[in-house]
Design brief:
With 82 residues, this protein is mainly beta. Helix content is 11%, strand content 45%. It is built from one helix and six strands, in the order E-E-E-E-E-H-E. The chain has one helix at 60-68; strands at residues 3-12, 19-22, 28-31, 37-40, 44-47, 70-80. The strands form two sheets. It has a four-stranded antiparallel beta sheet with strand order 2-3-4-5, with helices on one face.
């Protein structure tokens, strides 16, 4: 097996009341004003507590609202050689 490094870079316009917070493991996530936390990974992931299980949403309107905030996207793929 080979190791593949995927780098995803997004630039977004987001509401002023979104905040960056860290989990106890030091992972940065976004705190939304409605008590939800957002992690942008391969797909937007949400949680009611940043220390618990993260999941995608069944709310298509929310998902589309988040994706509409993306102004640019850059994805690179690189095989890692050791």
């Amino acid at each position: 097996m080979r190791k593949l490094r995927v780098t995803l870079e997004l630039e977004m316009s987001v509401p002023d009341d979104w905040e960056l917070v860290e989990t106890s493991e030091g992972m940065p996530v976004l705190s939304l004003p409605n008590g939800t936390f957002l992690d942008m990974a391969m797909e937007p992931l949400f949680a009611s507590n940043p220390e618990e299980t993260w999941s995608s949403t069944d709310d298509d309107t929310l998902l589309n609202d988040i994706l509409d905030m993306v102004e640019s996207e850059a994805v690179t793929y690189e095989f890692v050689r050791h």
